[in-house]
Amino acid sequence: MSRSLYRLGRFAVRRRWLVLALWVAAVIALTVGGKALGGELKDQFTVPGVESQRATDLLKATFPTQAGGSAQVVFHPRTGTVTSAANRAAIESTLRTVAKVPHVVSVASPYQVPAQISKDRTIAVANVAFDASPLDLGKQPYRDLKGSVSSATRAGVQVDFGGEVAQFGEQSGSPGSEGLGLLAAMIILIIAFGSVIAMGLSIGTALFGLASGLSAVTLVSAFVTIPTVAETIAVMVGLGVGIDYALFIVTRHRAGLARGLTVGDAAGRAIATAGQAVLIAGTTVVIAICGLAVAGVPLVTWMGFGAAMVVAVTVVAALTLLPALMGFAGHNIDRFGIPGFRARVEVGARGDDGRYHGWARMSHHVSRHAVAYLLASLALVLTLAIPMLSLRLGQPDAGNDPTSSTLRRSYDLVAEGFGPGTNGPLILSVDLSHADRAVVLPAISRAVAATPDVASVASASVSPNGETAVIQVTPKSSPQAAQTTILINRLRHDTLPAAVASSGAHVYIGGPTATFIDLSNRLASRLPFFIGAVILLSFLLLLSVFRSLVVPLKAAVMNVLSIGAAYGVIVAIFQWGWGASLFGVHESLPISSFVPMLMFAILFGLSMDYEVFLLSRVREEYLLTADNTESVATGIATTGRVITSAALIMISVFLSFVLGDNPTVKMVGIGLATAVFVDATIIRMVLVPATMKLLGDANWWLPGWLDRLLPNLDIEGESKLGPDELEFPVALPEPDEPVLVG
To answer: Confidence band (pLDDT; 50, 70, 90) for 354?
Structure first.
């Protein structure tokens, strides 16, 4: 056990009022500081080094009026057409008001550009250009835009908004459904502990840590750009791990109290044993999520850092605030029990009657039929993973938003009136500084117009100095369609190089659609390296903890299996459409480009959590008995209740986020819930006992020279001691230490 952590736990109990006051002060300071500094989560889609970014940078440097944000105002009269006298008068009045909105530099009226009126004249689109990017503008211009369309709405014209500025203005954080996951966690904890107070300690610590972590993220966002989705991911992960970490520590604390230890000593031992496991597991999660920086994409990097900050604060809360709260509860931690649920502590593989029960019986059954269970479980997991082979990365567009969203309504109207590709035009940025524009621009337009899957090519707009031009290209397919990706690749590699050959011009394809495709390509190319680094880290960690070559190798393989199954499930649901309607998804869509990398980072840490908690108990029993099969049964029996509870909590929290509207959040929630379920059932209950039975004593083989080189990380050392042995002396109660009441 760690003496430092032991002292920390006892200190938190003795000085519980001080610890609580410091935490309250920290939350207040972070919250006030974040607001005072103007901290706000914002999205900034930049992908350094890719072509779409070069297109944007060229426009910012030489044609800034074309580099600002844009919005679409879509008009759809409830009666008549957009060209009828009354409707036209209302729409033109609205457009004059829109032109007066701060930061608007131009409004392209559909009555001046006939192509912006649908053939049946029931839908019209006005393109609004702003003088800065949505990130620089903030949300106020969109609010002003919405407030300027009253003339049209009063006349019975439906008005909806699309484009970058509208998307930025509509951004929201957490979906608000996490309360259902929290309620489920409370129910599970009451069943696990049989005590309202013990449940409250875990929930209270998790919520305090989550609030502190989110406040820290907001404060940091005053200095760097943290994306809005980071808040949702941070809430999802922080709430899950916060409750789980508290569950592990409270379970060990209650076991110490049941042995007759004082509150301070029980808390110290809980922090020194389960707390050390939490520290290592939490640190692993933080390191893995921070590893998202290898993607080289600021959006993904800071999304990871935001979630990592919340996890780090949650770990600190579990090690300091939780023992203080346990000090307040004292020996009354098991009071206010729920009738029918009796708190109990698992102590071994056999019950009082000397027979195997529950988890131990299951473990022995699997061990007796190890080969059959191994093959069956592998077949099941690999079957779940099969859809992963057709994984297609992309970015869901506004067509996946709920119909209550103005972005979705405008998307549908534009697709109906002008074709799906109009929702994701491509922007060609042409560098003419060393070319004859009179020759080059017509050649580009002709070549692009003749390319398959191109719906239309707009006239070129040339910068005042004549060195840069912008050409808008409308695909036939929607932004998220695979055909659009194929079209961009064809234009970049075949059409455009041939059109500008030896002319001295350079053409870059930009715009939101191209940016998201470049983002997907960047993340896909970096994903293998990221996965390899994470697996290597997990191998080295478990190698040091368990002093074995086989155990970490087996754990790495099993982690890959559970995550592969999760990838397969989200592909089957979101790409193949299997059961998609149950989750509020009604059409096929690509997997958000950062989801696989993000899931791997998070699940790696969570898997290590359960792996360390289970296998450390197995190893300790093996060191005492040298009986491999019995050690596995004891490890599963003594950790089964708490790991199952922890997994159910995680699954409940993750699935609660599926109730939101964001398809990307749905993917993450379903994927994480699937992986945790597979990890806590098939992996822990079947694959672990089956493989450890077949490998026998080889599970714990380690060359002597390597053993001497590795650091010694003793995670759960207390169980190696006899029931009456104490690595730390039992201290007498402090003067202010709670004592047994009643």
So the answer is: low
Question: Helix/strand/coil (H, E, C) string of 448-506?
Answer: HHCCCCEEEECCCEECCCCCEEEEEEEECCCCCCHHHHHHHHHHHHHHHHHHCCCCCCE
Provide the sign of the torsion angle of the four alpha carbons 273, 237, 196, 315, taken in this order.
positive
Helix (H, G, I), strand (E, B) or coil at 350: strand
**Per-residue pLDDT tens for 215-227?**
999 999 888 888 8
- List, in order, residues 6 or more apart from 339 with CB less than 8 Å away: none
What φ, ψ does residue 125 adopt, rounded to 5°?
A: -125, 130
Buried b (16+ CB within 10 A) or exposed e, 323-340: bbbbbbbbeebbeebeee
Tell me, rounded to whole angstroms, the distance of Cα 294 from its chain centroid. 16
Cα 497–chain centre separation: 39
Query: Across the chain, what does the average pLDDT equal?
Result: 85
Contacts of 590 (CB under 8 A, 6+ apart): 392, 393, 394, 395, 396, 480, 482, 520, 574, 575
Name the one residue in this structure whose structure tokens are 């970049």.
Answer: 492
pLDDT of residue 721: 38
Q: C-alpha angle with apex 34: 32 to 36, nearest 5 degrees?
A: 65
Note the maximum CA span of the chain: 95
Torsion of CA 485, 489, 490, 496, to 10 degrees: 130
Burial 226-242 (b: 16+ CB within 10 A, else e): bbbbbbbbbbbbbbbbb
Task: Write the burial class of residue 36 (CB in 10 Å: 0-12 exposed, 13-18 middle, 19+ buried).
Answer: exposed
Average pLDDT over residues 30-49: 83
Q: Using 50, 70 and 90 to split pLDDT, how confident is the model at 580?
A: confident
Q: Which of the residue ranges 172-181, 441-450, 511-520, 574-583 would you say has the lowest mean pLDDT?
A: 172-181
pLDDT in tens, 465-481: 889 999 999 999 988 88
Distance (Å, whole) CA 43 – CA 231: 12
CA dist 337 to 247, 252, 308, Å? 17, 18, 35
